[in-house]
Design goal:
single chain; about 350 residues; alpha/beta; 6-stranded parallel beta sheet; 6-stranded mixed beta sheet; 13 helices
Length: about 350
């Protein structure tokens, strides 16, 4: 295994310089830093885990977390995983500073500003897909405050990594499921959370592209947004079905499923096939009542804990994520495997 001494000898610099480069401590000439990193990569340098623990105990690390708070029980599971990881890392002088926001760029920017004022060293965020949020992530990265996105990603930003589902693939999977569970002419409605949340739009894109390419008997009639809110979902789903009584399938891409399904029942539309996401109490109940046919799950515990662990390793040991995308499994659940 390569050592800091070997890297220093090959680079022609001191061990202290190598340590500063690999652990992101202090200022080092850009060319020297590039040389050290290149040698470390070629030697497959791995930091000593015992040394990491000792270094972490000497250094206070503050990691900020910004998650959506829309009443979606899925995020409760993500939040509980964040709390568990926080408890685990407390003994290493790592504190996790947490904020919740709605689907709003302004709310997220305010939450980030508050965390900056508390002196965070890194940020985990489920980002609202807005240019201002992407620019803020770039600004943090330029100040050596690394950012990792979780649950939903954001395009055109310099975040380190993303942890969550391959949402486009999930949308394709939903299209395949709808094809399997229906017959004849299908007229589908799409109920989504927000057009400004990338995971929602990617789920729709994968669904629509797959249907267009492979399943001509399925036709998409209309799409509505419910802000992940059950009350709004009830009103808008009921209006959708009233305006388009020929709809015989619904694809829920986000939360608000319970409210939307209550609207279906209020119109006595038991002929409608319904697909949704996440095994939460509401969707489990609706599957047991034979209202929802299937759900696609996305491992919320991983989305809460993994980004914090990656940031902790990066901040304490200079151990960068080994890839850009950490995709969770596409987990299909029907009544029989709940």
């Amino acid at each position: 295994m390569a050592t800091i001494r070997e890297i220093a000898e090959l680079a022609g610099v001191s061990r202290g310089t190598v340590d500063r480069v690999l652990n992101h401590r202090g200022s080092v000439n850009a060319a020297t830093a590039a040389l050290v990193n290149d040698i470390a990569k070629k030697l497959d340098y791995k930091p000593n885990r015992a040394g990491i623990a000792l270094a972490a105990q000497r250094k206070m690390v503050r990691i900020g977390v910004v998650l959506f708070d829309t009443g979606n029980p899925f995020f409760d599971e993500v939040w509980n995983s964040v709390l568990s990881k926080e408890e685990e890392l407390n003994s290493y002088n790592c504190s996790v500073l947490k904020k919740k926001t709605g689907f709003s760029a302004q709310e997220q920017l305010q939450a980030i500003a508050e965390l900056e004022a508390e002196g965070i060293d890194g940020l985990v965020i489920s980002p609202f897909n807005d240019t201002a949020v992407a620019n803020k992530i770039d600004q943090l990265q330029s100040r050596q405050i690394p950012v990792i996105t979780t649950n939903t990603d954001i395009r055109n930003s310099s975040r380190l990594a993303f942890i969550g589902s391959d949402f486009y693939r999930c949308g394709q999977t939903a299209a395949g499921l709808m094809n399997l569970m229906t017959s004849g002419e299908v007229r589908a409605g799409i109920v989504t959370g927000s057009s400004q949340v990338l995971c929602h739009t990617d789920r729709i894109a994968g669904f629509c592209d797959r249907i267009s390419a492979c399943y001509p008997r399925i036709r998409i009639i209309a799409e509505i947004e419910n802000s992940d809110d059950d009350f709004e979902s009830y009103d808008k789903t009921r209006a959708l079905l009233s305006a388009h009584p020929d709809i015989n399938a619904l694809y829920f891409t986000a939360a608000g499923v319970y409210g939307g399904c209550r609207a279906v029942l209020s119109l006595n539309r038991t002929d409608i096939h319904i697909l949704a996401y996440d095994k939460i109490p509401a969707t489990k109940e609706l599957m047991e009542q034979h209202i929802i046919s299937a759900v696609i799950c996305q491992q919320p515990a991983i989305q809460g804990s993994k980004p914090i662990q990656l940031l902790f390793d990066y901040l304490t040991a200079g151990e960068a994520p080994d890839r850009e995308f950490y995709y969770t499994a596409v987990d299909i659940r029907i009544l029989e495997n709940l």
